[in-house]
Amino acid sequence: MASSSSLREHVAELLTWEDAHASFDSAVSGLPEALWGTQPAGVPYSPWQRWSICE
User: Fold this and answer.
1) What are the residue boundaries of the structural domains of the chain, listed by start?
2) How far apart are CA 17 and CA 10, in angstroms?
3) Of 2, 37, 38, 54, which is most buried with the most CB atoms under 10 A?
4) What pLDDT does 55 receive?
5) What is the mean pLDDT of the chain?
């Protein structure tokens, strides 16, 4: 079984890897401050609520 250190490294890599998906920062760059806490139509969370799930 992998050590907890290598597991942490792997999880960190999965959360920061951008080969297939945009990072949170790049996905919300340019998002107007007025929209930060709003939920888009048809989506059950705001961008910030989604990020808190990942943390």
Assistant:
1) 4-54
2) 10
3) 38
4) 53
5) 78
Indicate the pTM of the whole model.
0.40
Per-residue pLDDT, averaged over 5-20, amounts to: 82
DSSP 20: S
Contact 8, 24 (CB under 8 A): no
Non-local (6+) Cβ contacts of 52 within 8 A are: none
Query: How many other C-beta atoms can be found within 10 angstroms of the C-beta atom of residue 50?
Result: 15
Q: Are 35 and 51 in contact (CB under 8 A)?
A: no
Q: How far apart are CA 53 and CA 44, in angstroms?
A: 13
